[in-house]
Amino acid sequence: MAIPPYKAPSRSAYDIVIVGGAVVGSSTAYWLSQALGSGASILVVERDSSYEFSSTALSTSAIRQQYSNPINVKISQFGIEIIRGFQERMAPFYKDEPAPDLGFKEHGYLYCCSPEGVEAAKERVELQRSLGAHTVFLEPGPLKERFPWLNVDDLGGGSWGSREEGWFDSMGMLNGFRRAARGSGVEYIDNAVTGLDVIDGRVVSARLVTGETVSCGTLVNAAGPRAQQVAGMAGFSIPVAPYKRYSFVFASANPIPGRMPNVIDLSGTFVRPEGELFLTGNTPQDDGPADYDDFEMHFEEFDDYIWPALWHRITAFDALKVQTSWTGHYEYNMLDHNGIVGFHPEVTNFMFANGFSGHGLQQSPAVGRAVSELIVHGAFRTLDLSPFCYERVPRNEPFLEEAVI
């Protein structure tokens, strides 16, 4: 894996050190810089600023409100607000060029529902609608009417987010947050944290691969799939590991008419349009923790599992040709698939922003703001993310989310 030349920090002590400069780390840096201005020194340590292998760059870049937990719905609603207003928000940091338009494709998600899952699906839709989401439940007849290319023979219906769900430009969001943070005085360096020094219940310094040691007032773990590596440096463990997800872009001999949503099949396979092509993926058969540097592609996932599921659900997909494919990593929280956000109760200046299990990109605006609020104010000021606290991990008390892809 190619790594750009490492760079030393400009000073020996910082108020805040953020480990990881992808979308969660950069969102955190952005919100902190807006709250603190020049009154705090902030360092972001990113091991590869090309982001070639980052979960942000390799994600499928989508956002939905179809969750079973109210807090996850609200997190996404704030994400939509940020996506819609991103260009205007970032404009002050792009003096000589247009700020990024995230190209939000508001096509919605369509969750296929088995006959036995109808009641639970309707309850989720009712919850989402009570929170302001635009989800509707469609019985098989109306579902077929709206999406005539869909095979509904084995379905009990489907829940469709008719508005404020879809997909967008992941790197546009990352680059915007990063540029705004740097423009507000945050220092980014290509480097890697190799160790943490903990004294009397506080992280006092971080050791870098280039040999420097930087003192810190607060340490933020935003290391994505490597979150457990950083937690281990402070002497504790979180159940977060990299899980591989294979993505395939394919062409179909038969086009799909109309405005196609992101279809989530009963099998776990998803498919959505990408211009004249289509993007698809699934929960792989070999689903288990991977090595941090393992991005090997398993092409057989498409032929053996994805294509049969696609053809069953959308019979027009009888002649497909893969155009490109890639492997990305989910920072998978094996306890309950939800993020871990908040300070450690004993190492009191160690902040978690980890384990979002494939939702990190869409949740990054709200998570970055929440982490900033905890650091600056000592409490959540907007969305209360206390259900994501670290304390549930040693207690083995999952905060469960039913709607996991």
In angstroms, what is the radius of gyration? 21 Å
Binned, the helix content reads: 25-40%
Instruction: Give a count of the beta strands, DSSP E runs of length 2 or more.
Output: 18
Distance between termini? 28 Å
DSSP strand (E) fraction?
25-35%
Give me the secondary-structure category: alpha/beta
The general outline is: globular
Describe the largest sheet. Answer: 8 strands, mixed
Low-confidence stretches: none
Counting H and I runs of at least 4 residues, what is the number of helices? 9
EC number: 1.-.-.-
InterPro entries: FAD-dep_OxRdtase, FAD/NAD-bd_sf
Protein name: FAD-dependent oxidoreductase
Keywords: Oxidoreductase
Task: Summarize the structure in words.
The chain has 405 residues and is an alpha/beta fold. It has 9 helices and 18 strands. The strands form 3 sheets. Strands 1, 2, 8, 9, 10, 11, 17 and 18 form an 8-stranded mixed sheet that branches. Strands 5-6-4-13-14-15-12-16 form an 8-stranded mixed sheet. A two-stranded antiparallel sheet has the order 3-7. α1 (23-36) runs parallel beside α6 (170-183) and α2 crosses α9 (360-377). It is globular. It starts with 12 loop residues before the first strand and ends in a 28-residue tail after the last helix. Its EC number is 1.-.-.-. Keywords: Oxidoreductase. This is FAD-dependent oxidoreductase. InterPro entries: FAD-dep_OxRdtase, FAD/NAD-bd_sf. Residues 15-374 form the FAD dependent oxidoreductase domain.
